[in-house]
Write a structure and sequence with these properties.
Layout: E1 4-7, H1 8-11, E2 21-28, E3 34-40, E4 48-51, E5 60-61, H2 64-74, E6 81-84
Parallel strand pairs: 1-4, 2-6
Antiparallel strand pairs: 2-3, 3-4, 3-5
């Protein structure tokens, strides 16, 4: 899925006053690695891939738990997190 990129710094230090993260999806690549997609209140209604803090590259995680922990602790998100494993990839160590 190709989405527009939002840098992680926009979700943390540069979030506008009153801006919120409204929707979070943790998705698995066919390689087994995970990435985060978010929907935010201060842009259009679409989902965005989360990029590295200062580089236009999608941030990848080896485990779903690491991505989820980062969303909760790093972004201060307290809502529902949707997890989307890749069909056919059954690696217990990736969770």
């Amino acid at each position: 899925m190709e989405l527009e990129l939002i840098l992680e710094r926009e979700l943390t230090s540069q979030r506008p006053p009153g801006g919120t993260i409204t929707d979070v999806h943790v998705c698995q690549h066919d390689s087994g690695k995970w990435h985060i997609n978010v929907r935010v209140s201060w842009r259009r209604a679409g989902l965005f891939h989360v990029g590295l803090y200062d580089k236009k590259r999608i941030r990848l995680y080896k485990k779903a738990a690491s991505a989820i922990r980062h969303v909760i602790i790093g972004y201060g998100y307290e809502g529902v997190i949707h997890v989307h494993p890749c069909p056919g990839v059954q690696d217990e160590t990736a969770f």
